[in-house]
Amino acid sequence: MENYSLLYSSAHRTGLLCGFQRLRSQSRMCDVVLEAGGESFPCHRALLASSSDYFWALFGEATVERLADSISLPALTPQGLDAVLDFLYSGWLSISPSTLPVVLAAARYLQVEPAVSICERFIIDGLSAETCCGYANLAEHHALVDALEAANQTVAMEMGTLLKDRRDDLLGLNVQSLMAVLDADQIPAVKEAELIRLALDWLDENGPVSLLKSNLLLSHLRFGLVAPSDLSTLSHAHRAMATPLIRSQLTRAMEYHGMGAAQPIRQTRQSTLRASPNHVLLVGGGSSRDWPEQQVMAFDPRSRKFSSLRSNLPLRLRHHCVCSVGGFLFVIGGQEVKEGDEDGKKFDDDATTNQVWRYDPRFDLWEKMESMLERRAQFTCCVVEDVLYAIGGQNTRLDTGVHVSVASVEFYDMAAGSWRRGPALPRPLYGHASAVLDNNIYVSGGAAGNQDSGVNQDDHRQSSKEVLLWDPKGRVWEKRAPMSIARFGHRLATAHGHIYALLGMYEPFCDIEQYSAVSDNWTRLRPLLIGSFNYGMVATPSGNLMVFGGRKWSDGQEVIVRSVLEYDTKRDRWREICQLPRPLTGTECTLLPLPD
Fold first, then answer.
1. pLDDT in the model for residue 458
2. Alpha helix stretches (DSSP H) within 26-144
């Protein structure tokens, strides 16, 4: 068989369309006339039928229109039909925000799907606070799934601006879009009470509305995010709030507010913040090693910007612990630093505390919870299945002021709002670190100190390499492979199924190692070029580790730094991503969703 080539010419396709367009502009060889709004458009049946499913069916063998000289299209406007015909003859679609509705209507009616897709892309690209509500209605009317989803997301993200400047646009929004918006997990800078008032105003503006539709709409609201006093007022604000379904949701919201200590473990969608992804909270610490600040900073990993919580930490703390459970921040123990005045001179008092404070970002509220059974500082805490554990540490004897290390372990029963004893460590320990892997608690390093007579300045020289494991379902601490380096004041973090041990308070400052629970061994990784200690650290959802501030040695002196470092656990690589607003040491970090 003789070989042959099959070649393609795009110029021929373009020339063919140009030829048809020239024939149409000169009204030559046209065999059908389309009419819309009193205007006539001479066309060619063959091109129409080959470009549109509507015309293919219209000019079929068994239709009346097959041989008709003129076809009326009363559902279309001249402007919309003309734009679609231009597209069929040239491949170019003329469209603007003002002509979009009629062009889209014509493209959808005539089943010209490429033109419909162009209109959908135009909607998505043109979304803004000014256009999102109108485009959402247009997308919903013409069943443009992607455009509708994008428009609904824009409405949610621009809700603050819309409520202030374009409320009428919101009141004209179709009910499917409004329900989708009220179901969104992110609605920045808008309180839930404002969304409730919007929903009730929408019902008044678009009424009468069926009971089913009203209940469906209001059920997307999160009544648990509204203060009890406001809930009581809203429950009588509209007849739609008096239906059995909505009243039951209001009742559950009031019950949630009355749960006290159990709130973090009783979270539902109704009480979950419409929040941006987790922020890093930097709690305690300061620009001086001896004078911690009460301001709590929040770091947004996406924008790499810092902000401050509106309310301050109730105490000045150092050597404390923080963690988050159920969208609440817990600040536990530590040394409470007080400023007094004695004979005209200022002094600091740093007695160890057993206080526990809980921060609710929903209402920017600090609340004192049940205190720990023991006073603790330089201890470690972790969370396993919503249970908070406090492990080891030091306390201060009130009569002598001597620091005493402890082996005790306790956990917070949130359902009962009380602390209970757990199995003690094999020996007293402070300056250690902990991490959770596969619901097991790992504790590493630290120093034993002196249980009877206090801790002396050289105790850190007895820092440990030891690693202990405890399954909270059991009663015994077990030994695991020790670290390659004795560490004190270091950090542990879990990422990608491994545990990482970072830095430490005493030399060597820079070394990092990774633990595998499968093989029960540690592997040394690339060290940090410039060592630091007394820093804050958190593991991000991506598995990277972030280190905030701390202290380093420079020319024989301690220097408090502003650097924010990120460690890529997959690539074993460090980089500095930004700077703190001010030097910071002694801070404790955790992840927490915050309202925008």
1. 45
2. 45-51, 53-58, 78-90, 100-109, 113-125, 132-141
Look at 52-61, 141-150, 209-218, 429-438 and tell me which has the smallest mean pLDDT.
52-61
Crossing angle between the packed helical segments 145-157 and 113-125, to the nearest 10 degrees = 10
Tens-place pLDDT, residues 260-294? 999 999 999 999 999 877 899 999 999 988 889 99
Coil, strand or helix at 479: strand
Q: Which helix (H) or strand (E) holds 365?
A: strand 365-369
Instruction: Residue 585: name the closest of 546, 541, 540, 552 by CA.
Output: 552
- DSSP for 417-441, please give it: TEEEEEPPPSS--BS-EEEEETTEE
Enumerate long-range contacts of 225-234, CB under 8 Å, 24 or more apart: 225/191, 225/192, 225/270, 225/271, 225/273, 225/274, 225/362, 226/192, 226/193, 226/196, 226/253, 227/257, 227/363, 228/254, 228/257, 230/193, 231/257, 234/193, 234/196
Residue 192: name the closest of 362, 365, 364 by CA: 362
What the block records as the tokens of 22 is 């020239």
Based on the fold, state whether residues 265 and 283 are members of the same structural domain.
no
> Nearest CA to 159 among 130, 199, 126, 187?
187
Q: Are 53 and 115 in contact (CB under 8 A)?
A: no
Contacts of 427 (CB under 8 A, 6+ apart): 407, 448
Round to whole Å and give the CA distance between 240 and 229: 19
Averaged pLDDT, 369-390: 95
Distance CA 184, CA 222 (A): 11
DSSP letters for 195-214: HHHHHHHHHHHT-S--HHHH
Radius of gyration (C-alpha) of the chain in whole angstroms: 34
Contact 349, 342 (CB under 8 A): no
Peptide bond between residue 208 and the one before it cis (omega within 30 degrees of 0): yes
Q: Are 493 and 500 in contact (CB under 8 A)?
A: yes
Q: Which amino acid is at 189?
A: A
What type of residue is 71?
I
Same structural domain, 289 and 147: no
Q: Which of 252, 270, 288 is the last residue of a domain?
A: 270
Q: What is the domain range of residue 221? A: 70-270
Q: How many CB atoms lie within 10 A of CB 29?
A: 11
- In the numeric block, the tokens 């000289």 are attached to 69
**Contact status, residue 328 vs residue 264, Cβ threshold 8 Å:** yes
Q: Is 160 found in the same domain as 228?
A: yes
The pLDDT of residue 340 is above 70:
no
- Report how far apart the first and last C-alpha atoms of the chain are (Å, whole number): 72
Angle between helices 132-141 and 113-125 (to 10 degrees): 160
- Please answer whether residues 312 and 281 qualify as being in contact, where contact means their C-beta atoms are separated by less than 8 angstroms: no
Strand partners, 350: 337
Q: Give the number of domains in the chain.
A: 2
Enter the tokens of residue 540: 């991000």
Q: At residue 5, what are phi and psi to the nearest 5 degrees?
A: -115, 145
Same domain, yes or no: 164 and 303: no
* pTM recorded for the entire structure: 0.86
How far apart are alpha carbons 72 and 544 in whole angstroms? 64
**Cβ–Cβ under 8 Å, residues 391 and 425:** yes
